[in-house]
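About this split. The held-out portion is used to measure sequence recovery: a designer receives only the structure tokens and must propose an amino acid at every position. Recovery is the fraction of positions where the proposal matches the reference. Here is one held-out target exactly as it appears in the evaluation file.
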């Protein structure tokens, strides 16, 4: 096996959209790829297409929902049970809603999925990330140009504004990513 084929990669939300296209690209490298998604049927279909499209049979589905703390923790447990090391974590799962919605934990859904989930999942996977030689965490953002962060409106406390709420959560995610990178820098 070459170096690329020895890598283990996890991508959240890899069953559709940008995540699916990213998963295809990752699978083409020959790496072992664990694709996460909320829906087993959709996930199995996506994994089948990835395997067929790349010839990489080392693609697996891990069902999990990152919209709640319990779901994030359960996904982290499932992943750590399957891998001894994790070279790359791609936090791609995202949420874009058209109406106000809260998670099971009472957290505004954009903040729960786009900010809390990548933060908590990354921290939960630190043991298997640390077991890899040169681990990386990638947080996928989106939306228009970064919006200024309003710390008094992290969970749409000033009112839900559709796409603007999404863009704000992605700006918060970028800031969280930079803070997390700084925090984890000493660990490599």
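Reference sequence for scoring:
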């Amino acid at each position: 096996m070459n170096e690329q084929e020895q890598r283990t990669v996890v991508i959240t939300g890899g069953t559709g959209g940008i995540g699916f296209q990213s998963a295809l690209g990752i699978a083409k490298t020959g790496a072992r790829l664990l694709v996460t998604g909320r829906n087993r049927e959709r996930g199995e279909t996506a994994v089948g297409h990835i395997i067929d499209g790349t010839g990489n049979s080392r693609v697996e589905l891990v069902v999990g929902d990152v919209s709640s703390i319990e779901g994030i923790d359960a996904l982290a447990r499932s992943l750590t049970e399957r891998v001894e090391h994790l070279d790359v974590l791609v936090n791609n799962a995202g949420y874009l809603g058209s109406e106000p919605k809260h998670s099971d934990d009472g957290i505004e859904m954009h903040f729960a999925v786009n900010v809390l989930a990548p933060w908590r999942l990354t921290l939960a996977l630190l043991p298997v990330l640390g077991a890899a030689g040169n681990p990386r965490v990638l947080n996928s953002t989106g939306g228009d140009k970064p919006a200024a962060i309003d710390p008094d409106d992290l969970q749409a406390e000033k009112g839900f504004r559709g796409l603007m709420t999404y863009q704000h959560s992605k700006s918060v995610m970028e800031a969280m990513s930079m803070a997390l990178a700084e925090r984890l820098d000493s660990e490599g």
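Annotator remark: The longest helix spans residues 163-184.
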